[in-house]
Each structure stands twice: as C-alpha cells, then as structure tokens.
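> forwarded from #structure-qc
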C-alpha cells in the first residue's frame, strides 16, 4: 500500500510539472518571456503559485526548464547527425551536410506530439529571437558546445571568408529564419515551402538549404560593386531633394576578383549564441 501511494504521488507530481511546463511553453510561444506572468501560467496549468515554486523555484528557473525540455533533445540529435556526416565524409563534408544536420532534427521534432508538434517550430523561433537575458543567457551558456561544433563545421566547408564575415552571415540568416518561425503559422509556413504540394521533408529541406547556401556562399562585394551602390544612394538622395541624378560614370574595366571572393565565397565570425537553432 505504501509503495502504491508513493507511486501515485510521484505520478501526480510529474503530471503537475508537465502541466506547468506545457502552460509556460504555450504562453512563451505567444507572448515571449516578458509577456508571460506566473499568474497566467498557474491559471493555464490549473495549479497554485506554491506548485511552481516547489517544482521550479520561480519564473526564471521554470523558463530554463521549459527551454531545456525541447532544446536539449534537439541539440543532441543535431550533434549526432553532424557526427554521422563527418564520419562518413570527412574532409569532403559540404555546407549542405551541415545545414541538414541543423534543420532536419527540428523538422522531425515538429511532427511529433511528444515534442510539441507544430508548435515546436514557433517555439524554436521564439527561443532564438526572444530578447530577454533570461532566455538568451541560458542558450548562450547551455549550448556552447553545439554552437562551437556547428561553427567549426561551417568554417571547414566555407574556409575563405574572414571569420567575422561568416559570423555575420550566420547571425543574419538564422536570425531572419527564427523571426519568420516565431511569427508564422507553422502549417502555412510549410505549405509555402512546398508551394502547395503535400508536405515533403526532402522538398522542405532542399528549398531551405538552397536559400541558406546561396546566402552563405555569396561573394563579398568588390570596389566596383560598392561604388555602384554608392552612386545609387547619391541618386536616391538627389531624387528625394528634387535634384537631377548624377550623370552615369564611365564603366570601369572589370577588375580581377580578390582571392577571397574568387576562391570560395564564405567565411567565419562571431555567430551569436542565440542562433544555435534553426
């Protein structure tokens, strides 16, 4: 009897924790860390404040547990897939391999109710765009190994841009994708990616990888391109002021591409830790 009672209490405690985590996750996806309150969480989970403090110790630690519940598994699966690609291909690993290792586990988790289902993609986008130090500080410290592994892999496949340039491109590309995920209807987003066809993991990953690879491999702008852009800005300012645009400058002879932009157009840099996702 005592053992049955202990088991029942354990199950009840587990159910309570799950309800609290589910409620916090749903609110986090909709309004972010700063927008959700413990009162809202306890109301949605149908528990009292004492239960939150007992199981988690407050809003910050609850948020960390909520993030870890999804992101721990995601990053374990990402590293496992990256390990498999590196073992199979060695130095021949490509940027596409690294991107697939980053995105495929997230897409697969979005199909499983146990990991949040369709809400998982929005959760992922919110996690990497939420500006709260509680969220970003946790991700920056808790997933350093995953970030480092993927950044090193990108450097291996894209060795010819400066480190800072690769960091900028990853930060921009992943940040843009995360913002889209955070504010999107996941079903509509996946329909858009497949152009109305039945959802297909290969098609989704293929389209996503093609967009990302193009952004990462784009050549650095040379002096000619920068000069042309400067001319456009001058013309735009002249038009706004009602003046005539400047005369077209003589077209300069093509310049030899720099070793950086000609060899392989990508590099590396500080990839903000909040962009561990996909």
């Amino acid at each position: 009897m005592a053992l049955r009672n202990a088991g029942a209490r354990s199950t009840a405690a587990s159910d309570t924790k799950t309800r609290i985590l589910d409620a916090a996750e749903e609110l986090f996806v909709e309004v972010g860390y700063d927008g959700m309150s413990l009162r809202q969480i306890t109301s949605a989970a149908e528990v009292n404040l004492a239960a939150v403090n007992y199981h988690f110790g407050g809003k910050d630690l609850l948020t960390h547990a909520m993030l870890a519940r999804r992101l721990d598994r995601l990053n374990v699966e990402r590293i496992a897939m990256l390990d498999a690609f590196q073992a199979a291909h060695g130095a021949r690993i490509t940027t596409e391999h690294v991107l697939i290792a980053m995105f495929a586990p997230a897409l697969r988790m979005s199909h499983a109710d146990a990991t949040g289902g369709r809400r998982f993609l929005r959760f992922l986008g919110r996690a990497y765009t939420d500006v709260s130090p509680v969220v970003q500080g946790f991700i920056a410290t808790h997933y350093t190994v995953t970030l480092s592994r993927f950044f090193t892999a990108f450097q291996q496949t894209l060795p010819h841009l400066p480190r800072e340039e690769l960091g900028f491109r990853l930060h921009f590309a992943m940040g843009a994708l995360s913002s889209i995920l955070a504010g999107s209807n996941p079903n509509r987003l996946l329909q858009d990616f497949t152009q109305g066809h039945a959802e297909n993991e290969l098609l989704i990953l293929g389209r996503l990888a093609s967009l990302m690879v193009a952004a990462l491999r784009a050549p650095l702008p040379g002096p000619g391109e920068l000069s042309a852009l400067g001319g456009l800005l001058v013309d735009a300012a002249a038009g706004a002021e009602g003046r005539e645009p400047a005369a077209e400058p003589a077209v300069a002879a093509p310049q030899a591409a720099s070793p950086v932009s000609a060899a392989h157009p990508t590099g590396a840099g500080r990839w903000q830790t909040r962009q561990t996702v996909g």
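QC bot note: Confidence is low (pLDDT under 50) at residues 251-278. Residues 2-35 form the longest helix (34 residues).
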